[in-house]
Design goal:
This protein folds into 2 domains: 76 residues; 108 residues, 2-Layer Sandwich (Alpha-Beta Plaits). Helices cover 51% and strands 21% of the residues.
């Protein structure tokens, strides 16, 4: 009661300010909560956008890898028919075929030469058995010639000679029926364009 007994204009104003500040405080609190909620939503949206950007970059990289893998597969298919790949020497190619288990010619001598035809060059490799007395069956020699060409689209057998021999590597006499033992020599050619050689 003492409060109201000394009630004057100042106290009336203080009381009015106190009563009026309650709804105002509620509004400020609600707005602050709304701002916090909005900020949280914006932050979530930004994180989502960041993840979307990262996801799109990942998809682009995966697509790039798939494309490169397909190109690599196509290149491998095209090289498969070449036989002679990369820096492999034609001499290595020939010797590998000569040692094949289904041919088994053993070691061979290879002499290289070239013929210039203006716009292109023929690389020529003369092939003979390392041991001139070594003999082979016609099947082994035929398989060797066949495989030289079938394993590479670049290689062509351009010269071939086969002679009947006896067990000592000598030509049999005319009146003697030869056994199926033969000596051979051959040439293969690899044609290249001059411009392609500098690549």
């Amino acid at each position: 009661m003492s409060f109201f007994q000394g009630f004057n204009t100042v106290r009336v104003l203080i009381l009015l300010f106190l009563i009026g500040s309650i709804p105002m405080g509620m509004q400020v609190w609600k707005r602050e909560q709304g701002i916090r909620t909005l900020a949280a939503q914006v932050g979530h949206h930004r994180n989502f956008e960041a993840r979307s950007v990262q996801g799109s970059e990942l998809v682009a990289r995966v697509d790039s890898i798939i494309t490169l893998a397909k190109e690599h597969s196509e290149l491998q298919k095209s090289l498969k028919g070449e036989g002679i790949r990369g820096n492999d020497s034609p001499m290595v190619y020939v010797r590998t075929i000569a040692k094949d288990s289904k041919i088994n010619l053993g070691r061979v001598e290879i002499n290289a030469s070239e013929k210039d035809y203006g716009g292109f060059i023929d690389k020529i490799f003369s092939i003979t058995p390392q041991d001139s007395k070594t003999t082979f069956t016609r099947q082994a020699i035929s398989n060797f010639m066949y495989k030289l060409e079938s394993d590479s689209r670049r290689v062509r057998v351009t010269k071939f000679n086969i002679d009947a021999t006896d067990e000592n590597g000598r030509r049999p006499k005319i009146d003697v029926l030869p056994s199926d033992l033969w000596s051979f020599d051959c040439e293969i050619s690899i044609r290249e364009q001059k411009a392609a050689r500098g690549r």
